[in-house]
Design goal:
Shape: globular
Largest sheet: 8 strands, mixed
Structural class: alpha+beta
Number of strands: 25
């Protein structure tokens, strides 16, 4: 079977891309979705402005028919011991919603199918081959049947797995080690009408921060966001350890005191990253496949829908012969990510109570090297892939190679920027130099 565009991944970013393509007049679009949307998903709250994107996808009537829970606002305990509230109803956009994620994703996929997309459900992507400007994709149906599909263009919408893009050589450039330890709780009947139960709550603690929000069927998802090392050291997958940590979050613990945990804690990766290659010959990555933001931003769904709309427009232009559309799309994804990082840093810097503890210090320190510091590459360096921070692995190697003889830090940054034609903003290069020094890849010469 032959298509103009095949989208691997039928979540909200993939479905939004398909809808956008169909709106642009691209007729032959296919979506591969490996799941059946039966697995419980971490609850997500979308803020009022996301309604505009849902309308742009012509999905508003379907969305309101699902009956997602109203979210009247958000609450935070951040930088202080008291709770502060943000009421959505006071904004120009009105209320937000606590999503039933499986229903939301199935809704968007159904709209894409209704508009003309061919949807291969419970179908996994296996491998790809490109010949004569055409892609051949090998897929596996849940029945065990192997399927071969052809396409002019491929979209990676597989989220953090980046199942297609990594086969094209793309790699994540990580910016932290954030992980989530989460569990689901059942809300008792006499606790269901409390006004503040409709609010998403974020609460900072010494080793990270807690998130809790309503789900359908009177459930609440409770998640602790922390670094991977802390998660392992404190054995937070263990129910008792999880509960011990929860007691440090006064307001979250109070919120859950009458609720019952329904299963043992689970772990999910939640780190921030951007791909080093977001587009390539006949493909692009969209949503979390291209970049992922700290969940503190509450921007995941909004970002996925917005990215899908933009990706659809980009691909339609590319198929019509616009040779610059993929480059412009890639540059926009990177630019938005680089705008997000200092915003994230400024928000973490608002929390001063534990600024010297590892979790907070790593997110509040912007760059830790003096411009006149004299640096030299280590005589026996370890692999830069072990670090994988701020810049792609190959660029970290270039930094080290520029420092085979002693260089002042500011000269090293200038030389790298000249060599790469200022491909990256200075702050990313400075931060990368700092990381290389911290991991003894670069040594400071006295």
């Amino acid at each position: 079977m032959k298509f103009q565009v095949i989208i691997i991944g039928g979540g909200c970013a993939g479905a939004a891309t398909a809808i956008s393509l169909l709106q642009q007049g691209v007729e032959h679009v296919a979506i591969l979705e490996r799941s059946n949307f039966s697995q419980t998903r971490i609850g997500e709250t979308i803020q009022p402005p996301t309604a505009q994107l849902i309308m742009a996808l012509e999905a508003w009537e379907d969305f309101t028919a699902v009956g997602h829970l109203d979210a009247l606002g958000s609450a935070s305990v951040w930088g202080t011991d008291t709770v502060s509230y943000k009421d959505f109803m006071n904004s120009t956009h009105g209320r937000g919603w606590h999503l039933e994620r499986n229903a939301f994703d199935k809704m968007l996929l159904g709209i894409a199918e209704r508009k003309g997309a061919t949807v291969f459900r419970t179908t996994a992507f296996l491998s790809s081959q490109r010949e004569n400007s055409q892609w051949q994709l090998s897929c596996l149906r849940h029945t065990g049947e192997t399927l071969t599909l052809e396409s002019d263009f491929v979209v990676d919408a597989t989220g953090r797995a980046i199942s297609f893009a990594k086969r094209q050589g793309a790699e994540k450039v990580l910016f932290d080690d954030l992980h989530s330890v989460y569990s689901y709780w059942q809300q008792p009947e006499n606790d269901r009408e409390r006004f503040d139960s409709t609010y998403t709550l974020v609460e900072a603690v010494p080793d990270g921060w807690w998130y809790s929000a309503l789900l359908p069927n009177h459930q609440i998802v409770v998640a602790f966001m922390t670094d991977k090392a802390i998660l392992k050291d404190e054995q937070l997958k263990d129910r008792d350890s999880f509960m011990t940590q929860l007691q440090l979050a006064t307001h979250t613990a109070k919120r859950m005191q009458h609720c019952q945990m329904s299963h043992a804690p689970k772990v999910a990766v939640a780190n921030s990253y951007v791909l080093d290659e977001i587009t390539g010959d006949g493909w692009l990555a969209v949503g979390d496949s291209a970049s992922a933001y700290d969940p503190l931003s509450s921007y995941g769904i909004h970002k996925a829908l917005d990215a899908g709309l933009k990706a659809g427009t980009t691909i339609a232009s590319h198929l019509k012969g616009d040779t610059d559309s993929l480059t412009a799309y890639s540059q926009e994804v990177v630019s938005e990510f680089e705008d997000f990082i200092p915003m994230r840093s400024s928000y973490y810097q608002m929390e001063k109570r534990w600024e010297n503890l590892p979790f907070w210090k790593s997110r509040q320190t912007w760059a830790g090297i003096h411009p006149m510091a004299r640096l030299k590459a280590a005589d026996e360096p370890t692999s830069t892939r072990r670090i994988n921070r701020i810049l792609p692995d190959r660029k970290l190697k270039e930094l080290c190679e520029l420092c085979t003889t002693t260089q002042k830090a500011h000269e090293l940054v200038q030389a790298f920027q000249t060599q790469t034609q200022a491909q990256y903003p200075d702050w990313r290069v400075i931060k990368a130099v700092s990381y290389l020094q911290q991991h003894n890849m670069l040594q400071q010469i006295s």
